[in-house]
Amino acid sequence: MLLDYIKQPWPWYISGPLIAVVMYLLLKQGKDFGMSSNLRTMCTILGAGKSSSFFRFDWKTQSWNLLVVLGTAIGGFIAHYFLSDGSAAKINAESIADLKELGIIDQLQGYLPESLFIFNGSLFQFSILSIGGLLIGFGTRYAGGCSSGHAISGLSNFQLPSLIAVIGFFIGGIIMVHFLFPLIFA
């Protein structure tokens, strides 16, 4: 019975407080949580400090965060292959209808539309994935972190730049979904 409960999506009143407890414990340890900062740490480990001062820092102080990335990857693997009931994501019917109208999905299996995220060799899909990846990488560096890091870690530290970044993420998401998405996939 417990395993059946674990396999279901967890409600906000369970997952939210768990995230808050983790953030509290990190703050008590004087650590800032963030996934995108691990890219800087990995580049430093691989020797990027020889060509850029940005990568010259004591990466060992961030080694704990590399374990977070490893745990996230292992946890995702375990959750997908052993703790998932295999059912499709429960997404609003209107959202699915809108995605079908744009030709993005014919049916949704899992959390990601396969027509966008499983590479089929088309130049259009390659362009969308490449441009999107570059924009996300540039935006993450320019904003000083990813949307999750600012929203979870930055806001819990009462950082004004994180509040501004999160507001920007929401505005950008609204513009993308309501104006650019229909133009790109029309």
Explain the overall architecture.
The protein has 186 residues and is an all-alpha fold. The chain has 2 domains: 1-84, no CATH class; 119-186, no CATH class. The protein has 9 helices and no strands. Helix 8 (147-156) runs antiparallel to helix 9. The longest helix is centred in the last third of the chain and has 25 residues, at 160-184. The radius of gyration is 19 Å and the shape is globular. The N and C termini lie far apart (46 Å).
Spatial shape: globular
Low-confidence stretches: none
SSE series: HHHHHHHHH
Secondary structure tally: strands? 0
> What do the pLDDT scores average to?
83
Global structural class:
mainly alpha
Report on the biggest sheet.
none
Pick out its properties.
0% strand, mainly alpha, single chain, 186 residues
